[in-house]
Design brief:
InterPro entries: AB_hydrolase_1, AB_hydrolase_fold, AB_hydrolase_sf. Keywords: Hydrolase. This is Alpha/beta fold hydrolase. It holds the Pfam family Abhydrolase_1. GO terms for molecular function: hydrolase activity. There is one protein chain. The chain has 253 residues and is an alpha/beta fold. A seven-stranded mixed β-sheet has the order 1-3-2-4-5-6-7, sandwiched between helices. The chain starts with a strand and ends with a helix. The protein contains twelve helices and seven strands. It is globular. The chain has one domain: Rossmann fold, CATH 3.40.50.1820. The longest helix is centred in the first third of the chain and has 15 residues. The structure holds D-malate (MLT). D-malate binds next to loops. The site of D-malate (MLT) has 7 residues, from loops.
C-alpha cells in the first residue's frame, strides 16, 4: 500500500499519523512549525486524503504495516512516530508489530484500552450509516473543546471542512478497524524508547485520565496536558502542541 505523504524539513524523521476521520491536512501547523528542527512526514492513512483504501480486512495492524512500508520506501530505518487519537492506535500497533522502527513515540489524545462491546457496536452503526450515505458532521462538537467551539471560529470551520470531506468507505473501514483493535497496555509496558503523551484538558473523547494511564504504563514517558484544548489539540492549540513536541525531540537528540 503506497501512502500519499506530505513532508517538510530535514533532519530527525518525525512521522505524524492523523486522527479519524481526517487526513494529513490536519498537520498543517506541524509541517510549518516543526520543519525547522526535523523531517516531518505526514502520510494519509489508507483510504483518507490521497491514499487508496485497498481490500484488506479492517485492522489497525494493516495501517501500521503501511507506515512500516512507507519508512522502507523513504529509506528510513527508524523514526519518532506520533499519532493523534486513531493515529495513536496505529502508532501503538506499529510499536507492537515493528518495535525496531521506533526511536521515540508521541501519543496524543488517544488511549491504550480497547473498545467496550457497546463502543464497538456503536462503531458498526456509524459504519453502516456512512455506507448508507450518511456523514460525520454531527461528531464535530465532540472533537473540539469548549474553548474552540466558543472562541475559535476558524478552527471550527476548518475541522468541519476536513470532517465533511472524509470518504465514506474509508471512514466505515476505519471504524471497523478501530473496533477490532486490541488492548495496548502490554505494548506500552514493553516499549524501550522515550515517549511523550499529550492530552487536552477539554478532551471529551479521550479525557486526561486515559493519558495518565498510558504515562503510567510506559517505562520512560512524560505527560503534557494542554489547557483549553479538546480532542484535536494539534489543530486547536498548535503552538503549545508544537512546543511540547519540539522539547521532546530536543531531549531525544
Ligand atoms: C479520532 O479522533 O481518531 C477518533 O475519535 C478515535 C476514535 O473514534 O476512537
Amino acid at each position: 500500500m503506497r501512502l500519499y505523504t506530505r513532508t517538510a524539513g530535514s533532519g530527525l524523521p518525525l512521522v505524524l499519523l492523523h486522527a479519524f476521520p481526517l487526513s494529513s491536512a490536519m498537520w498543517l501547523a506541524q509541517r510549518g512549525g516543526l520543519a525547522a528542527g526535523c523531517h516531518v512526514v505526514t502520510p494519509d492513512l489508507r483510504g483518507f486524503g490521497g491514499s487508496p483504501l485497498g481490500d484488506d480486512e479492517p485492522s489497525v495492524d494493516a495501517m501500521a504495516d503501511d507506515v512500516a512500508e512507507l519508512l522502507d520506501t523513504m529509506g528510513l530505518d527508524k523514526a519518532v512516530v506520533g499519532g493523534l487519537s486513531m493515529g495513536g492506535y496505529v502508532a501503538m500497533a506499529l510499536a507492537r508489530r515493528h518495535p525496531g522502527r521506533l526511536s521515540g513515540v508521541i501519543l496524543a489524545n488517544t488511549k491504550a484500552s480497547p473498545d467496550t462491546p457497546e463502543a464497538a457496536a456503536n462503531r458498526e452503526t456509524i459504519a453502516q450509516r456512512l455506507l448508507d450515505g450518511g456523514d460525520l458532521l454531527d461528531t464535530v462538537p465532540n472533537l473540539l473543546g469548549t474553548t474552540s467551539l466558543e472562541r475559535r471560529g476558524m478552527v471550527v470551520g476548518r475541522v468541519r471542512g476536513l470532517v465533511g470531506s472524509a470518504p465514506a468507505r474509508a471512514a466505515a473501514w476505519a471504524q471497523r478497524a478501530m473496533a477490532a483493535r486490541p488492548d495496548s497496555f502490554d505494548t506500552l509496558r514493553g516499549l524501550n524508547v522515550p515517549a511523550l503523551v499529550v492530552a487536552g484538558d477539554e478532551d471529551k473523547i479521550t479525557p486526561v485520565g486515559d493519558a495518565e494511564a498510558m504515562t503510567k504504563a510506559l517505562p520512560d514517558a512524560r505527560l503534557v496536558v494542554i489547557g483549553r484544548a479538546g480532542h484535536l489539540s494539534a489543530i486547536e492549540t498548535p503552538e503549545t502542541f508544537n512546543r511540547a513536541v519540539a522539547d521532546f525531540l530536543t531531549e531525544l537528540a
